[in-house]
Task: structure prediction
Amino acid sequence: MLLLDNSAWSRLLSGTVPEDRTAMVVERMSEGELTTCLPFLLEASYSARTAADMRKVRARLDVLPHVAADSEVERLALIAQAQLADVGHHRLSPIDIMIAACAHRAGGGVLHYDRDYDLIAAHTRLSFESVWVADPGTL
Result:
């Protein structure tokens, strides 16, 4: 299972993701392996320009499976943020930390185009697969 991050979602919508990676995403989506979580939904909705656009975004995403951000995810995210601070990375996106904690809790990965996830995976106890939607620096 892969949780979506807005960095991947926005690039998929813009059509800038290479064909082979887009095909992988479509396949994972059709198999029910592409999921959302509250932090991602809030970020994706925030990116909408109008209320009508937001409703379209949500309608598109509401068909995907959803991973809950429960109290354990909250606890894991706070611990991860402290671990990142200990190594000088206390200013990483709270949304990214929450999505990584959701992925850890669900035993999955994160589909993204954002170096923060590699830092989170390297410097915290969160265990999740960091999957780039395209090679870093290519989009």
User: Anything to note?
Assistant: The longest strand covers residues 34-37. The chain has a mean pLDDT of 95. The radius of gyration is 14 Å. The beta strands are 2-4, 34-37, 66-67, 109-112, 129-132.
